[in-house]
Amino acid sequence: MLYRFSFFSVIASIAFIGTLHAESFFKPTSIKLTNGFDFPVERPDADGFYKSRGFRAGGHLGEDWVTDGGSGHSLGQPVYNIGQGVVLLARDVHVAWGNVIVIRHAYLEKNQICFVDTLYAHLDHIGVKEGATVERGQKIGTIGNNHGMYPSHLHFEIHKNLNIGVNHTGFAKTLVNYWIPTEFIVKRRTLPEGGRKAILPITHFDIPSPSSYVARKHRVLHVKKSTKKSPVKKIF
Ligand SMILES: [Zn+2]
Q1: pTM above 0.70, yes or no
Q2: Which residues place a Cβ less than 5 A from the ion ligand 1?
Q3: Which domains does the chain possess?
Q4: Across the 236 residues of the chain, what is the mean pLDDT of every consecutive 10-residue run?
Q5: CA of 197 to the centre of ligand 1 (A)
Q6: What backbone phi and psi angles, to 5 degrees, belong to 179?
Q7: How far is the CA of 73 from the centre of ligand 1 (A)?
């Protein structure tokens, strides 16, 4: 999210927290190790794009990518999966995120199998389904503006902690849980994989559902209207 919209982001985040509910959606599966990572725009090197906002621990937990022409020219530009992976989440979760995709990747480093989740938010269009295997460099969607809430840009994160999903709350906003995206990618452009596969770990993370979002929205409206006279029902 862009900094100048931070006030709205805070409001959106508050609303967002209230919509969370636990949902188990991820089945164990095996996946090929990726042979490296690319940038999520204009693969493989993000030529013609720049970061309008970088990663900051405690604040902005990803990078915002726009075309050299600015956010006005970014709408509809392709977004690419950065490495071989499996789609965990691909849906409109409203409020702070809009259309969001989360992909899990396995890779080999120092002879250890490691995992990361990548998150692509505010998309105009989602082009993949949950549970699908996606190739490195595959187009997965297009840059959007979260239903008009922000200037068009890709908000992109890389999670060390596989329990984060789309929920920043409850996890330290530090490098313990997050990678700095550009740094991570640059150091891992080419990786050994040897055709090996890994069993992806089972994790559950909280996601808001459209139905709970709508239900809450209606409740909030009801409370606002009824604060003058009627007793207000406790809604939490
Ligand atoms: Zn952002």
Answers
A1: yes
A2: 1, 64, 155
A3: 31-197 (2.70.70.10)
A4: 38 38 54 95 92 97 94 93 95 90 95 95 96 95 94 97 91 97 97 87 71 42 34 28
A5: 32
A6: -100, 150
A7: 17
